[in-house]
């Protein structure tokens, strides 16, 4: 029997529903990845301005939505997981300029119902690789955004941080010293088979990863009329290093686990 076309998306949503509480409690208002890598780059690339209407795509517990609101933006924040949106609402102070909606970002029609040209910017933190499809989102964003508006997103770096990558640590004896080397071994890049994994040790359910090589990730954005106009590859630094953690992203200071990009919408809009 062949799986229904929306089967991976349904299974991905069920996993996020099951993980929502654990994820919210662990992430709180942000972990090392958010604080040190994703948010500084996203904030730089998006540059949210007071009064702007910003769409936060796959907002999870709303940690970036609240940051955008704190910068003065009026935020519409969407996620397809009902329990995740409940967590986001519970965390957000009354009167804050964030409006949460349960909405599947693979559903182009539902996205467009948010209002064509209704947003001056959009953001998505560490979520595109969790989405079964991204083409409907890019097509919709080209119409949801005002002409030349920007979409800033972060993802697990497709080249280094994917289900096909393994972190390693090697000890080199150099005279009386032991020098540690940390790196990544990648034995797959082109495959787009969905994979399951645990982003946070101990989470109840394995989540789905929809790894895409860079060309596959960006092709539907280019097809929708976006141009790539900024790119950052943040990595942890020596200050984050802790040899006791062994092979860990905090120690792989030469390798960016995250890619942050800005896409600019079509000049005349779509
Ligand atoms: C790794 S979490 C990141 C959440 C949040 N952006 C953050 O910074 O903490 C990925 C999120 O993507 C959401 N997600 C995955 N696929 C989605 C889809 N098709 N539509 C909307 N949300 C989706 C999940 O429910 C989950 O909240």
Write the layout of secondary structure elements.
Layout: H1 7-27, H2 32-46, E1 53-57, H3 63-70, E2 74-79, H4 82-91, E3 98-102, H5 108-112, E4 119-125, H6 135-144, E5 145-156, E6 165-174, E7 177-186, E8 195-197, E9 207-209, H7 214-223, E10 227-232, E11 258-264
Parallel strand pairs: 1-2, 1-4, 2-3, 4-5
Antiparallel strand pairs: 5-11, 6-7, 8-9, 10-11
S-adenosylmethionine is lined by residues 9, 12, 16, 27, 58-60, 63-64, 79-81, 84, 104-106, 125-127, 130-131.
Describe this structure in words.
The protein has about 270 residues and is an alpha/beta fold. It has a single domain, classed as Rossmann fold (3-Layer(aba) Sandwich). The protein contains seven helices and eleven strands. A seven-stranded mixed sheet has the order 3-2-1-4-5-11-10. Strands 6-7 form a two-stranded antiparallel ribbon. β6 and β7 form a beta hairpin. α1 packs parallel to α4. The relative contact order is 0.17. S-adenosylmethionine binds next to α1 and α3.
How would you summarize what this structure contains?
This protein has 270 residues and is of the alpha/beta class.
Radius of gyration: 19 Å
CATH architectural type: 3-Layer(aba) Sandwich
Helix content: 25-40%
Terminal CA distance reads 39 Å
* Low-confidence spans: none
Question: What's the number of extended β-strand segments?
Answer: 11
Which homologous superfamily in CATH is the superfamily? Vaccinia Virus protein VP39
Placed side by side, the strands forming the largest sheet appear as 3-2-1-4-5-11-10
Portion in beta strands: 25-35%
